[in-house]
Amino acid sequence: MNAPLRKSRPYIFWGQTQSLCETCLKLVPTKIQILDNEVWYEKRCREHGVQSTLVSTDAAYWRLCKDFIKPGDRPLQFQQRTEFGCPYDCGLCSDHEQHSCLALIEITEHCNLTCPVCFAESSPARTKFTPLATVEKMLDALVASEGEPDLVQISGGEPTLHPDFFEILDAVRARPIRHVMINTNGLRIAREKDFVARLAENRRGLEVYLQFDSLQRDALIDLRGADLRKIRQQALENLEHYGVSTTLVATIKRGVNDAEIGDIVRHALTWTCVRGVTLQPVQDAGRNENFDKNTDRIMLSEIRKRVIETGVFGDKDMIPLPCNPESISIGYGLRNGEKVLPLTSLIPQEQLVAVMPNTISPEKYPVLREKFVDLFSLSSGPLNTSERVCELLCCLPSFQVPEGLSYENVFRVTIVQFLDRFNFCVGNVKRSCIHFVTEQGAIIPFDTYNLFYRNGKIDGIRAALRGDTYREATQREEMPR
């Protein structure tokens, strides 16, 4: 009767993954722990010891994401053979689990800003512009991989500064690419109405992805190095005047602009041309000046909570995106002026449960499930969103589709969390569906590109891995039999 009492661990051991040592960026074994309502990674590096990192503040939502995982869509082609294992074979390799829902084509390193949080480290001092012929080869590589790519985002640097910008836009149009986005800081759009007028001539299937981090001066100085309030206002006025579909994109940093999430969403609803808001927690990559893990990191779960607090979308409306549920949360609604009726609230709860992947009876409403998953996709854009909304609503016998429903009646909020050295997970990155297309025709996930490939760090990593493999093989040969 004197045996010592066993003690329970202070957390739930949920499982195991591989993450990155936050010091040397080596792949390390990682425990997934749930402590109260938080999800933590406990990493163990042989050289740098144990590191504990918070990855979600909402364990219930994090677990819910697992129920939204669906089979990935394979690309038509792979560009890289598997040799070293994920994440060191990006290209895409055959071990990747998802095609390119959204592909970025960077056409310049030049920019008219030097943003303190730029993952591409662009600036006025960088003067490289990718030649049109090279851009066309990049587009051809994407088409070979995808057949009919859903969404191409023209990016940089500041892509609108490229001397062949409209020729590049024509090159996109000349290929079977469904939608195109222009990723821009808005300076040229604000200053040159003629430029916006020409954009409007191409507006079918086109959307402007407008940097819009804050309504406050201090936050803009912190994130962008300049007070851009007047620029943002003028850019939106010009886009509104010419009726160019626009998404406002905010990089969110704790203590800088996270308290403004509701204000940004409500501000978006005051503009007819704005179709939605994308919120991105700052990724620790590139020029991320004075970044402090302990004070500046913010998670998808925290941003989602702030969105719910706006009242525009509720807890049941901001759902995981099925192609990469842990990294992307999205809500769609029907818009009437500044009022939004969330689409998920139109679906009876028992039907909503039925259409979600991996739940009680997905076979019961197969058509409704298919239309729901189609709508909640990064490929929904200017050409087909209203059509997909109508198809979804037509599956609901209790709902009459409004007449004249168009893209202007749709409003969405998307939260996109990219992986970095803190929250990296091999399983998660394998499901990445947002990819860069390189000048060499490689297709690389956003997360790993900024961590390993943009700066050429991967060459040293692969050389070290080859050396390790050689040494292990040599040691095996020398072992006594």
Explain the layout of strands and helices:
Layout lengths: L11 E9 L6 E9 L2 E8 L3 E8 L2 H8 L35 E5 L25 H15 L4 E5 L9 H9 L5 E6 L2 H5 L1 H9 L4 E6 L5 H8 L4 H14 L3 E7 L8 H8 L5 E8 L11 H4 L3 H10 L9 E2 L7 E9 L2 E4 L6 H7 L10 H10 L9 H10 L15 E7 L9 H5 L3 E4 L5 E3 H8 L3 H22 L3
Helix pairs in contact: 2-3, 11-12, 12-13
Amino-to-carboxy terminus distance = 51 Å
State the helix count: 16
Q: Provide the gyration radius in Å.
A: 23 Å
Number of strands: 16
The percent range for strand residues is 15-25%
- Shape field: globular
Low-confidence stretches: 352-365, 470-481
Structure in words:
The chain is α/β, with parallel strands linked by helices and 481 residues long. It is 32% helix and 21% strand. It is built from 16 helices and 16 strands. The protein has helices spanning 59-66, 132-146, 165-173, 187-191, 193-201, 217-224, 229-242, 261-268, 293-296, 300-309, 349-355, 366-375, 385-394, 426-430, 446-453, 457-478; strands spanning 12-20, 27-35, 38-45, 49-56, 102-106, 151-155, 179-184, 206-211, 246-252, 274-281, 319-320, 328-336, 339-342, 410-416, 434-437, 443-445. Strands 5, 6, 7, 8, 9, 10, 11, 12, 13, 14, 15 and 16 form a 12-stranded mixed beta sheet that branches. A 4-stranded antiparallel beta sheet has the order 1-2-3-4. A hairpin with a 7-residue loop joins strand 11 (319-320) and strand 12. Helix 11 packs across helix 12 (366-375) and helix 12 (366-375) runs antiparallel to helix 13. The termini are far apart.
